[in-house]
Amino acid sequence: MPPEPSNSSGMKTFSIIWAGQIFSLIGSAMSQFALIIWAYQITERATALALVAFFGFAPTVLFSPFAGALVDRWNRKLTMMLSDLATGLVTLVILYLYITGSLQIWHLYVTSAFAGFFQAFQWPAYSATISMLIPKKQYTRASGMMSLAQYGSGILAPILAAALLKPIGISGILIVDLVTLVIAITTLLIVTIPQPERTIEDLEKPNTFWQDSMFGFKYIFQRPSLFWLQMIFFGGNFMATLGGVLVSPLILASTDQNATTLSIVQSAGAIGGVVGSILITIWGGFKKRVDGVLVGWMASGLFGYMLMGTARGLSIVWIITNFLGAAIVPIVNASNQAIWQSKVPPKMQGRVFSVRMMIATLTAPLAMLIAGPLADKVFEPLMRNETSALSQLFGSLVGTGPGTGMSLILVFCGFLMVIIGFIGNFIPNVRDVDTILPDHDAVAAKQ
C-alpha cells in the first residue's frame, strides 16, 4: 500500500494550486457575466442563455469516460494545464470576434462546446490529484476549499464585471480573464504533482483504451451503493439545472434588464457559497457523510428554488434565497466527494470519477436544452395571460407578468428536489453507503 500523503507538503502544494484557481475563477466568472448580459440584450430570450450552457456542458458529459481513461494514463499536471490552455484559446477567439464586431450568439455555442470538451479532462484530473496530495481525513476540507475558491471568486466577479462594463467594456473584461488564466497556469508550473503508483499487474497486462473507458461503468454498476448515490444526483441535477439556468433571465426579465440587480443577487449567492465552504472546511461535515448529501438536496430545493420562485420580483428575497441555497451546495458536494475519494483507489479515480460525473449529470444537457423553450413558449406566455388556467391556479403564488413563468418552473423544480432527497433516506444502499463499502486504504492494507 502506498504511504499516506504528507499533511504539510501535500497541503502546501494543494494550497498553491488552489490560490491559482481563485484568480482564474474570478476572470472566468467576470467574462461569463459580461457575455450573459450581451447575449440577453441582443436576443431577449431565455433560450439563448440556456443553449450556451447546453453546448458548454454536453461535450463534458459525452466525452467524460474517454477523458477519464486518459487522465489515469497521462501526466495529471499536464492534463490540467491542457484544460486551462484550451479555455484561454476560447477566450482569445471570443475577444477577437468581439473586437472586430463579428461576434454572434452562435459563436458562443461553438466556443462553449470546444471548451466543454476539455473541461471533461479537468475535473477528474483535479479530483484525482487532490487524493494523491493530501491525507484521507482532509478530503472533505479540501473539497470545501475548492468550493470556497469557486464561490469566493463569485463574490467579486459579478460586481467587478458590472462596474467595469462601461469603463473597459467586454473586451477589457476578456483581457482580464486571460491574465488570471496565466496566473493559474503558472501555479501549476511551479508545483510537483505525484502520479499514482502502477502495480506489476498494470504493467504486465495493460488494459486497452476501450477497456479503460468502460472501466468506470463496470466499477460503479458492481457497487449498488455508489450507483444509487449517483441516481440521487441524476434526478436532482436535472431539476437543479432546469431551474438554475433560468435564474439569470428571470431576474433580467423581472427588472427590465437591470444588470446591477443581477450582479447583487449573484454576489449574494457567492457569499452564501463562501459561508457554506468555510463552514464545511472548519467543521469537516457530518459524521455520516451521506447525511450531508440527502439533507442538503432537500434544503437546496426548499431555499434555493421554491422560495426564490415565490419571491414575486422582490430583490431582497432573491438575495436571501440565493444566499441560503448557495450555502448548502458546498456541503452537499464536499460530503459526496469525500465518500467517493475514500471508497475509490486513487489510481482508478480518473476513470471512475469521469463516469461518475457522466451518470450524475447526464440529464443536465437535456434540462438546459428544454429550459429555454419551456419558459419562452409555455410558462411565460401562460403566466402573462391572467385568464389562462395556469395563471389562475398559480398566480397567487408567483404573480403574473414578465418572469413569473420562470418563477413557477423554479418552484416545481425545487419541490421535486426535496422529494428526491427525501426518497434517498429510504433506499438502504444510499442511506448506508458509508458503512456498506470499505474505504480503499482499508482494502489495500488487507492485501
Report a brief summary of the structure.
This protein is mostly helical and 447 residues long. The protein has helices at residues 7-43, 46-62, 64-73, 76-99, 105-133, 139-164, 169-190, 200-204, 209-221, 224-244, 247-254, 259-283, 289-309, 315-343, 349-361, 364-384, 389-398, 404-424, 428-431, 433-436, 440-446. The chain has a single domain, classed as Up-down Bundle (Growth Hormone, Chain: A), CATH 1.20.1250.
Query: How far apart, in Å, are the first and last alpha carbons?
Result: 8 Å
CATH topology: Growth Hormone, Chain: A
Q: Please state the structural category.
A: mainly alpha
What CATH first level would be assigned? Mainly Alpha
Number of domains: 1
| Element-by-element helix/strand order | HHHHHHHHHHHHHHHHHHHHH
Mean pLDDT across all residues, rounded?
81
Our count of helices gives 21
List the uncertain runs: none
Describe the structure.
The chain has 447 residues and is an all-alpha fold. It has one domain: MFS general substrate transporter like domains (Growth Hormone, Chain: A, Up-down Bundle). Helix content is 82%, strand content 0%. The N and C termini lie close together (8 Å). The model has no long low-confidence stretch (mean pLDDT 81).
